[in-house]
Protein backbone atom coordinates (compact mmCIF):
# COMPACT_ATOMS: atom_id res chain seq x y z
CA UNK A 1 0.00 0.00 0.00
CA UNK A 2 1.43 3.38 -0.99
CA UNK A 3 1.42 6.07 1.70
CA UNK A 4 -1.14 8.82 1.48
CA UNK A 5 1.22 11.37 3.05
CA UNK A 6 4.92 12.22 2.87
CA UNK A 7 6.79 14.02 5.63
CA UNK A 8 9.93 15.56 4.22
CA UNK A 9 12.69 18.03 5.03
CA UNK A 10 12.42 21.30 3.20
CA UNK A 11 14.64 24.38 3.24
CA UNK A 12 14.14 26.08 6.60
CA UNK A 13 11.81 23.41 7.95
CA UNK A 14 9.70 20.36 7.12
CA UNK A 15 6.52 19.67 5.15
CA UNK A 16 3.79 17.08 4.90
CA UNK A 17 2.56 16.65 1.34
CA UNK A 18 0.16 14.27 -0.36
CA UNK A 19 1.10 12.57 -3.66
CA UNK A 20 -0.96 13.93 -6.53
CA UNK A 21 -2.17 16.92 -4.51
CA UNK A 22 -0.98 20.50 -4.53
CA UNK A 23 0.18 22.36 -1.44
CA UNK A 24 1.61 21.17 1.83
CA UNK A 25 1.42 21.43 5.60
CA UNK A 26 4.34 23.07 7.41
CA UNK A 27 5.80 21.09 10.28
CA UNK A 28 7.84 22.13 13.24
CA UNK A 29 10.89 20.06 14.07
CA UNK A 30 9.14 18.35 17.00
CA UNK A 31 6.19 17.13 14.94
CA UNK A 32 8.51 15.91 12.19
CA UNK A 33 10.50 14.01 14.84
CA UNK A 34 7.26 12.56 16.24
CA UNK A 35 6.43 11.07 12.84
CA UNK A 36 10.01 9.95 12.23
CA UNK A 37 10.26 8.16 15.56
CA UNK A 38 6.75 6.70 15.68
CA UNK A 39 6.33 2.94 15.58
CA UNK A 40 4.86 1.73 12.29
CA UNK A 41 1.78 0.42 14.13
CA UNK A 42 1.21 3.66 16.05
CA UNK A 43 -1.95 5.57 15.07
CA UNK A 44 -1.64 8.70 12.97
CA UNK A 45 -1.40 11.63 15.42
CA UNK A 46 -4.59 13.56 15.96
CA UNK A 47 -3.03 16.84 14.83
CA UNK A 48 -2.13 15.29 11.44
CA UNK A 49 -5.59 13.75 11.08
CA UNK A 50 -7.14 17.20 11.53
CA UNK A 51 -4.62 18.92 9.23
CA UNK A 52 -4.98 16.38 6.40
CA UNK A 53 -8.76 16.66 6.50
CA UNK A 54 -8.60 20.46 6.41
CA UNK A 55 -5.98 20.60 3.63
CA UNK A 56 -7.07 17.85 1.25
CA UNK A 57 -10.37 16.51 2.58
CA UNK A 58 -8.50 13.31 3.44
CA UNK A 59 -9.62 11.03 6.27
CA UNK A 60 -6.76 9.10 7.90
CA UNK A 61 -8.57 8.50 11.18
CA UNK A 62 -7.60 5.20 12.77
CA UNK A 63 -4.83 4.45 10.28
CA UNK A 64 -1.34 3.37 11.28
CA UNK A 65 1.61 5.70 10.70
CA UNK A 66 3.51 2.97 8.83
CA UNK A 67 0.73 2.53 6.25
CA UNK A 68 -0.05 6.22 5.93
CA UNK A 69 3.07 8.37 6.19
CA UNK A 70 6.41 8.04 4.40
CA UNK A 71 9.00 9.92 6.43
CA UNK A 72 11.94 11.06 4.34
CA UNK A 73 15.19 11.56 6.28
CA UNK A 74 16.83 14.90 6.93
CA UNK A 75 19.56 15.83 4.48
CA UNK A 76 22.55 18.20 4.69
CA UNK A 77 22.21 19.29 1.06
CA UNK A 78 19.05 21.42 1.15
CA UNK A 79 17.70 20.89 -2.36
CA UNK A 80 13.92 21.10 -2.57
CA UNK A 81 13.34 21.01 -6.33
CA UNK A 82 14.88 19.59 -9.48
CA UNK A 83 13.99 19.23 -13.12
CA UNK A 84 15.01 16.19 -15.14
CA UNK A 85 15.08 16.00 -18.93
CA UNK A 86 14.48 12.31 -19.58
CA UNK A 87 15.28 12.60 -23.26
CA UNK A 88 15.55 15.47 -25.74
CA UNK A 89 13.65 13.53 -28.40
CA UNK A 90 10.19 14.73 -29.39
CA UNK A 91 7.38 13.68 -31.72
CA UNK A 92 6.94 17.31 -32.81
CA UNK A 93 9.28 19.57 -34.74
CA UNK A 94 8.37 23.03 -33.45
CA UNK A 95 10.46 25.77 -35.04
CA UNK A 96 10.55 27.76 -31.78
CA UNK A 97 11.97 24.96 -29.58
CA UNK A 98 14.81 26.05 -27.30
CA UNK A 99 16.36 22.58 -27.42
CA UNK A 100 17.44 23.00 -31.02
CA UNK A 101 18.26 19.58 -32.46
CA UNK A 102 16.07 17.07 -30.63
CA UNK A 103 18.13 13.89 -30.22
CA UNK A 104 16.80 10.64 -28.78
CA UNK A 105 19.51 9.87 -26.24
CA UNK A 106 19.52 9.37 -22.50
CA UNK A 107 20.47 7.14 -19.59
CA UNK A 108 19.68 3.45 -19.48
CA UNK A 109 17.72 2.25 -16.47
CA UNK A 110 20.65 1.64 -14.11
CA UNK A 111 21.84 5.22 -14.65
CA UNK A 112 18.38 6.68 -14.17
CA UNK A 113 17.84 4.73 -10.99
CA UNK A 114 21.12 6.02 -9.59
CA UNK A 115 20.33 9.59 -10.65
CA UNK A 116 16.92 9.51 -8.94
CA UNK A 117 18.49 8.04 -5.80
CA UNK A 118 20.97 10.93 -5.78
CA UNK A 119 18.13 13.43 -6.13
CA UNK A 120 16.28 11.85 -3.22
CA UNK A 121 19.43 11.90 -1.09
CA UNK A 122 19.85 15.60 -1.93
CA UNK A 123 16.38 16.25 -0.50
CA UNK A 124 14.49 16.82 -3.76
CA UNK A 125 10.79 16.77 -2.97
CA UNK A 126 9.33 18.45 -6.07
CA UNK A 127 10.53 16.92 -9.34
CA UNK A 128 9.66 18.10 -12.84
CA UNK A 129 9.87 15.41 -15.53
CA UNK A 130 10.37 17.05 -18.88
CA UNK A 131 12.06 16.59 -22.26
CA UNK A 132 11.77 16.72 -25.24
CA UNK A 133 8.48 14.97 -24.81
CA UNK A 134 8.70 12.81 -21.68
CA UNK A 135 5.61 10.70 -22.41
CA UNK A 136 7.24 9.15 -25.49
CA UNK A 137 10.43 8.23 -23.62
CA UNK A 138 10.94 4.46 -23.58
CA UNK A 139 11.56 4.44 -19.82
CA UNK A 140 9.01 7.06 -18.81
CA UNK A 141 6.77 4.64 -16.90
CA UNK A 142 9.66 3.19 -14.91
CA UNK A 143 11.10 6.64 -14.18
CA UNK A 144 7.76 8.03 -13.01
CA UNK A 145 7.04 5.03 -10.79
CA UNK A 146 10.49 5.00 -9.19
CA UNK A 147 10.51 8.74 -8.45
CA UNK A 148 6.98 8.48 -7.06
CA UNK A 149 7.92 5.59 -4.78
CA UNK A 150 10.95 7.55 -3.53
CA UNK A 151 8.50 10.08 -2.15
CA UNK A 152 8.82 12.80 -4.78
CA UNK A 153 6.00 15.08 -5.86
CA UNK A 154 5.86 14.88 -9.63
CA UNK A 155 5.13 17.55 -12.20
CA UNK A 156 5.08 16.45 -15.85
CA UNK A 157 5.60 18.92 -18.69
CA UNK A 158 4.14 17.53 -21.90
CA UNK A 159 2.72 18.42 -25.30
CA UNK A 160 -0.28 16.22 -24.47
CA UNK A 161 -0.05 14.14 -27.63
CA UNK A 162 -0.24 10.80 -25.76
CA UNK A 163 -2.84 11.67 -23.16
CA UNK A 164 -5.69 10.15 -25.15
CA UNK A 165 -4.08 6.69 -24.86
CA UNK A 166 -5.62 4.56 -22.14
CA UNK A 167 -2.29 3.06 -21.03
CA UNK A 168 -0.94 6.58 -20.46
CA UNK A 169 -4.01 7.62 -18.46
CA UNK A 170 -3.85 4.42 -16.38
CA UNK A 171 -0.22 5.20 -15.55
CA UNK A 172 -1.04 8.76 -14.50
CA UNK A 173 -4.00 7.63 -12.43
CA UNK A 174 -1.73 5.20 -10.57
CA UNK A 175 1.22 7.55 -10.14
CA UNK A 176 -0.72 10.77 -10.06
CA UNK A 177 1.29 13.95 -10.66
CA UNK A 178 0.44 16.96 -8.56
CA UNK A 179 0.42 18.90 -11.82
CA UNK A 180 0.37 18.07 -15.50
CA UNK A 181 1.61 21.08 -17.44
CA UNK A 182 0.53 21.07 -21.09
CA UNK A 183 1.89 23.31 -23.83
CA UNK A 184 -0.75 24.73 -26.14
CA UNK A 185 0.41 25.81 -29.59
CA UNK A 186 -2.74 27.20 -31.14
CA UNK A 187 -6.54 27.22 -31.10
CA UNK A 188 -7.07 25.76 -34.57
CA UNK A 189 -5.66 22.90 -36.59
CA UNK A 190 -4.01 25.30 -39.02
CA UNK A 191 -2.00 27.20 -36.45
CA UNK A 192 -1.32 24.29 -34.05
CA UNK A 193 -0.31 21.80 -36.73
CA UNK A 194 1.71 24.52 -38.46
CA UNK A 195 3.67 25.36 -35.31
CA UNK A 196 4.39 21.73 -34.41
CA UNK A 197 4.89 20.68 -38.05
CA UNK A 198 2.82 17.61 -37.26
CA UNK A 199 -0.47 16.86 -39.01
CA UNK A 200 -3.26 15.99 -36.62
CA UNK A 201 -1.43 17.43 -33.59
CA UNK A 202 -4.28 19.74 -32.59
CA UNK A 203 -6.84 16.94 -32.66
CA UNK A 204 -4.56 14.76 -30.52
CA UNK A 205 -4.09 17.57 -28.03
CA UNK A 206 -7.82 18.19 -27.64
CA UNK A 207 -8.57 14.47 -27.26
CA UNK A 208 -5.86 14.23 -24.62
CA UNK A 209 -7.04 17.34 -22.80
CA UNK A 210 -10.58 15.99 -22.63
CA UNK A 211 -9.39 12.57 -21.44
CA UNK A 212 -7.11 14.01 -18.76
CA UNK A 213 -9.89 16.30 -17.57
CA UNK A 214 -12.28 13.35 -17.26
CA UNK A 215 -9.59 11.45 -15.35
CA UNK A 216 -9.45 14.28 -12.82
CA UNK A 217 -5.78 15.08 -13.40
CA UNK A 218 -4.63 18.46 -12.07
CA UNK A 219 -3.52 20.51 -15.07
CA UNK A 220 -2.14 23.82 -16.14
CA UNK A 221 -1.89 25.09 -19.71
CA UNK A 222 1.03 27.10 -21.04
CA UNK A 223 -0.03 29.09 -24.10
CA UNK A 224 3.12 29.34 -26.22
CA UNK A 225 2.80 32.28 -28.60
CA UNK A 226 4.70 32.61 -31.85
CA UNK A 227 4.13 34.04 -35.32
CA UNK A 228 2.01 30.96 -36.10
CA UNK A 229 -0.64 31.53 -33.45
CA UNK A 230 -0.40 35.00 -31.88
CA UNK A 231 -3.62 35.99 -33.65
CA UNK A 232 -5.38 33.24 -31.66
CA UNK A 233 -4.17 34.48 -28.30
CA UNK A 234 -7.60 34.96 -26.77
CA UNK A 235 -8.96 31.74 -28.25
CA UNK A 236 -6.08 29.76 -26.70
CA UNK A 237 -6.88 31.16 -23.27
CA UNK A 238 -10.54 30.34 -23.87
CA UNK A 239 -9.68 26.64 -24.32
CA UNK A 240 -8.16 26.56 -20.85
CA UNK A 241 -11.08 28.52 -19.40
CA UNK A 242 -13.55 26.05 -20.90
CA UNK A 243 -12.09 23.31 -18.71
CA UNK A 244 -11.46 25.52 -15.69
CA UNK A 245 -7.70 25.09 -16.05
CA UNK A 246 -5.23 27.87 -15.08
CA UNK A 247 -3.32 29.21 -18.07
CA UNK A 248 -0.17 31.26 -18.56
CA UNK A 249 1.36 32.91 -21.58
CA UNK A 250 4.87 32.45 -22.95
CA UNK A 251 5.51 35.23 -25.42
CA UNK A 252 9.31 35.55 -25.72
CA UNK A 253 11.17 33.06 -27.92
CA UNK A 254 14.64 32.34 -26.53
CA UNK A 255 17.74 31.03 -28.31
CA UNK A 256 18.52 27.34 -28.14
CA UNK A 257 20.42 25.87 -25.21
CA UNK A 258 23.44 25.83 -27.53
CA UNK A 259 23.29 29.59 -28.05
CA UNK A 260 22.11 29.39 -31.66
CA UNK A 261 19.44 31.63 -33.11
CA UNK A 262 17.62 29.58 -35.74
CA UNK A 263 14.50 29.61 -33.55
CA UNK A 264 14.33 33.39 -33.13
CA UNK A 265 12.51 34.18 -36.43
CA UNK A 266 9.44 32.42 -34.98
CA UNK A 267 9.02 35.32 -32.52
CA UNK A 268 5.74 37.21 -32.84
CA UNK A 269 6.95 40.74 -32.32
CA UNK A 270 3.54 42.09 -31.38
CA UNK A 271 3.47 40.03 -28.17
CA UNK A 272 7.11 40.51 -27.16
CA UNK A 273 7.32 41.94 -23.65
CA UNK A 274 9.67 42.66 -20.80
CA UNK A 275 9.70 40.40 -17.77
CA UNK A 276 9.73 41.55 -14.19
CA UNK A 277 13.15 42.77 -12.98
CA UNK A 278 15.59 39.95 -12.27
CA UNK A 279 16.68 40.25 -8.65
CA UNK A 280 18.47 36.94 -8.28
CA UNK A 281 17.31 33.36 -7.74
CA UNK A 282 18.22 30.17 -5.90
CA UNK A 283 19.47 28.32 -8.97
CA UNK A 284 22.09 25.87 -7.80
CA UNK A 285 21.24 26.50 -4.14
CA UNK A 286 17.81 24.97 -3.54
CA UNK A 287 17.10 23.63 -7.02
CA UNK A 288 19.00 22.26 -10.00
CA UNK A 289 18.53 20.70 -13.41
CA UNK A 290 19.66 17.33 -14.76
CA UNK A 291 19.99 16.64 -18.49
CA UNK A 292 19.37 13.24 -20.14
CA UNK A 293 22.92 12.09 -19.35
CA UNK A 294 22.89 12.91 -15.63
CA UNK A 295 24.79 16.17 -16.00
CA UNK A 296 23.60 18.68 -13.39
CA UNK A 297 23.48 22.43 -13.96
CA UNK A 298 22.09 25.30 -11.93
CA UNK A 299 19.03 25.50 -14.20
CA UNK A 300 17.78 24.69 -17.70
CA UNK A 301 19.38 27.83 -19.11
CA UNK A 302 22.70 28.04 -17.26
CA UNK A 303 24.38 24.93 -18.68
CA UNK A 304 27.81 26.39 -19.31
CA UNK A 305 29.21 24.45 -16.36
CA UNK A 306 27.87 21.04 -15.38
CA UNK A 307 28.53 18.33 -12.79
CA UNK A 308 28.48 14.64 -13.69
CA UNK A 309 26.25 13.27 -10.94
CA UNK A 310 26.77 9.63 -11.90
CA UNK A 311 30.52 10.06 -11.40
CA UNK A 312 30.51 12.43 -8.43
CA UNK A 313 27.33 11.42 -6.61
CA UNK A 314 25.34 13.72 -4.37
CA UNK A 315 28.50 15.48 -3.12
CA UNK A 316 28.98 16.87 -6.63
CA UNK A 317 25.95 19.10 -6.08
CA UNK A 318 27.96 21.18 -3.61
CA UNK A 319 29.78 22.66 -6.60
CA UNK A 320 26.60 24.22 -7.96
CA UNK A 321 26.47 27.09 -5.46
CA UNK A 322 29.85 28.40 -6.64
CA UNK A 323 28.92 27.80 -10.28
CA UNK A 324 25.66 29.67 -9.75
CA UNK A 325 27.41 32.70 -8.29
CA UNK A 326 29.77 32.75 -11.24
CA UNK A 327 27.11 32.36 -13.94
CA UNK A 328 24.51 34.76 -12.57
CA UNK A 329 26.84 37.66 -11.75
CA UNK A 330 26.60 40.48 -14.29
CA UNK A 331 29.67 40.67 -16.49
CA UNK A 332 30.84 41.85 -19.88
CA UNK A 333 28.74 44.67 -21.27
CA UNK A 334 26.25 44.27 -18.43
CA UNK A 335 28.72 45.10 -15.65
CA UNK A 336 28.32 48.87 -15.68
CA UNK A 337 24.81 49.04 -17.10
CA UNK A 338 22.75 51.73 -15.41
CA UNK A 339 19.54 49.78 -16.12
CA UNK A 340 20.57 46.65 -14.23
CA UNK A 341 17.98 47.04 -11.51
CA UNK A 342 15.12 47.00 -14.02
CA UNK A 343 16.53 44.30 -16.30
CA UNK A 344 14.34 41.19 -16.60
CA UNK A 345 16.98 38.98 -18.22
CA UNK A 346 19.26 36.83 -16.09
CA UNK A 347 22.91 36.60 -17.09
CA UNK A 348 22.87 33.00 -18.40
CA UNK A 349 19.97 33.88 -20.69
CA UNK A 350 21.59 37.13 -21.78
CA UNK A 351 24.68 35.13 -22.77
CA UNK A 352 22.60 32.83 -24.96
CA UNK A 353 20.98 35.84 -26.67
CA UNK A 354 24.42 37.31 -27.31
CA UNK A 355 25.80 34.06 -28.71
CA UNK A 356 22.78 33.83 -30.99
CA UNK A 357 23.33 37.44 -32.15
CA UNK A 358 19.70 38.16 -31.27
CA UNK A 359 18.22 41.62 -31.84
CA UNK A 360 19.00 43.72 -28.78
CA UNK A 361 15.35 44.60 -28.30
CA UNK A 362 14.49 40.96 -27.51
CA UNK A 363 16.44 40.89 -24.27
CA UNK A 364 17.95 44.29 -23.43
CA UNK A 365 16.40 47.62 -22.56
CA UNK A 366 19.04 49.42 -24.61
CA UNK A 367 17.36 48.06 -27.73
CA UNK A 368 14.47 49.87 -29.34
CA UNK A 369 11.28 47.91 -29.76
CA UNK A 370 7.67 47.32 -28.72
CA UNK A 371 8.45 45.87 -25.32
CA UNK A 372 6.09 46.55 -22.46
CA UNK A 373 6.00 45.47 -18.84
CA UNK A 374 4.94 41.88 -18.24
CA UNK A 375 1.23 41.62 -17.58
CA UNK A 376 0.61 37.88 -17.50
CA UNK A 377 2.41 35.36 -15.37
CA UNK A 378 4.68 32.49 -16.33
CA UNK A 379 6.72 29.73 -14.78
CA UNK A 380 10.48 29.65 -14.49
UniProtKB/TrEMBL annotation:
SUPFAM superfamilies: Radical SAM enzymes (SSF102114). This is Radical SAM core domain-containing protein. Gene3D superfamilies: Aldolase class I (3.20.20.70). It comes from Pseudonocardia eucalypti. Keywords: Iron, Iron-sulfur, Metal-binding, S-adenosyl-L-methionine. InterPro entries: Aldolase_TIM, Radical_SAM_PqqE_MftC-like, rSAM, rSAM_sf. Residues 76-282 form the Radical SAM core domain. The keyword Iron applies. PROSITE patterns: RADICAL_SAM (PS51918).
Amino acid sequence: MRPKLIASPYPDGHLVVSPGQEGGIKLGVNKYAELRDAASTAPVPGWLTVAARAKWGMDVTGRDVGDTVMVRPDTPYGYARASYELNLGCNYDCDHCYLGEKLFAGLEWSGRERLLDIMAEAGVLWLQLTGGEPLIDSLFAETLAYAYDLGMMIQISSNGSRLHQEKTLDLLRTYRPYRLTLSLYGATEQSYDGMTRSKGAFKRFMRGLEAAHEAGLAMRINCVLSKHNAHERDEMTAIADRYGIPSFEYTNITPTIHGTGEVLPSQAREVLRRHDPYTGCNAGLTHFHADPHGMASICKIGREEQVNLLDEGVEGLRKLAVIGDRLTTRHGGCTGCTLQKTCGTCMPLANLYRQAKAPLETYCQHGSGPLSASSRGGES
